[in-house]
Amino acid sequence: MALDRKNVPNDLSAFWMPFTANRQFKKDPRMLVSADGMFYKTADGRDVLDGTAGLWCCNAGHNQPRIVEAIRQQAGELDYAPAFQMGHPKAFELASALRDMAPKGMDHVFFTNSGSESVETALKIAIAYHRARGEGSRTRLIGRERGYHGVNFGGISVGGIVTNRKVFGSLLTGVDHLPHTHLPGENTFTKGQPEHGAHLADELERIVALHGAETIAAVIVEPMAGSTGVLLPPKGYLERLRELCTKHGIILIFDEVITGFGRLGSAFAADHFNVLPDLMTTAKGLTNGVIPMGAVLATGEIHDAFMQGPEHLIELFHGYTYSGNPISSAAGLATLETYREEGLFERAAAMAPYWEEALHSLKDARHVVDIRNMGLIGAIELEPIAGEPTKRAFTAFLKAYEKGILIRTTGDIIAMSPPLIIEKEHIDQLVGTLREVLEALD
To answer: Coiled-coil intervals in this record (predicted)?
Structure first.
């Protein structure tokens, strides 16, 4: 089909694209020009099934009328209000709605603009919390190998994806890492939580013995690691991590930027696994990916530690120009209402078994060495081409786009996380097309 020239820019050189092979893209651009429901429309008029909810964020699908109208109305009513020393109603309404949706005990909300900013905020709050309590020696941060916590300096320091870290210098000091939870020899082709690996949480005891608990401020983990290729928490792992953090007085941060807002069939992974962290980072699904916004949820204990001293003084010297932005807040309220009114979290839980069986039907496809899934997330790991890591999966991504499905790749892993509105027929199309792609790969 011919390109619609009004939707193709005449100069691609100015835009330095993020996380993109820029030279390859600009030789053969892949332009999305509109979206509705489960599908994108390309510049050449094709429909492309969204197998990734954009970037793990469009959980309610595209062009949701309630969200679109909320943004339109808010833009005409109050476009911007300063976030420092001033407020506007919808930020408080959204904070209350988030508190009501969150696990019991997560009582306070600090707004940001993205998952990366939410992580930076949570790390700073954790360190400042200990200082407020007279334990200022607790400054060390513990992340996890293969973890992804955004792209700011704090996030890549506690993160553990090598390519995101290696060219940016020495990063933050005082950071250590737990081992990742991926044990392919023991947990290959697992459906849901793996049986083996809870003992990996005990590595925190080794780090405590090395540095001393009195120096450690926080441990941050994704309950289920998404961007690194869907690494699932073994049974008992998160419970053990919670137990050890409590034992040693360490703040436990769950990075729920991906797992929040129904991705696992519950509002949050903390609900799904019945493990309560001290801080929780969110973004993406908070506004259905429509407009930038993030939020950090905190327990009352953490919040109240700052509410000391004279009332006219600022308690936490941190925030962003767009924290609780009026238009973002309106989008967030409409998004949470959409999830509730359409029962999308429950729908995701109900659709998960069909999704699981469809994914695992690819076990015999060419080059497949592992399949992992939980909720409406799935990963298909491919055997890499010798001497050319990532090339096989990237080729699969390009061929999938040509055949009308959007997938995401990280390394030689295909990751999928469709909108929660997905129907069985869409799952069949996604998996069926992916089989065609895999069978045609070299």
So the answer is: none
What H or E segment, with its residue span, contains residue 42?
strand 39-42
CATH number of 5-60+343-440: 3.90.1150.10
Question: Strands 140-144 and 106-112, how do they pair?
Answer: unpaired
Nearest CA among 134, 87, 128 for reference residue 326: 87
| Phi/psi-derived region of residue 169, left when phi > 0, alpha when psi is between -120 and 50, beta in every other case | left
Task: Provide, for the chain, the percentages of residues in helix, strand and coil under a 3-state DSSP scheme, each rounded to the nearest 5.
Answer: 40, 20, 40
Fold of 67-341: Aspartate Aminotransferase; domain 2 (3.40.640)
Q: Where are the domains of the chain?
A: 5-60+343-440, 67-341
> Would you say 147 and 160 are in contact if contact means Cβ atoms under 8 Å apart?
yes
What digits encode the pLDDT tens for the residues 122-131? 999 999 999 9
Per-residue pLDDT tens for 394-429? 999 999 999 999 999 999 999 999 999 999 999 999
**Of 384, 349, 381, nearest in space to 365 by CA:** 381
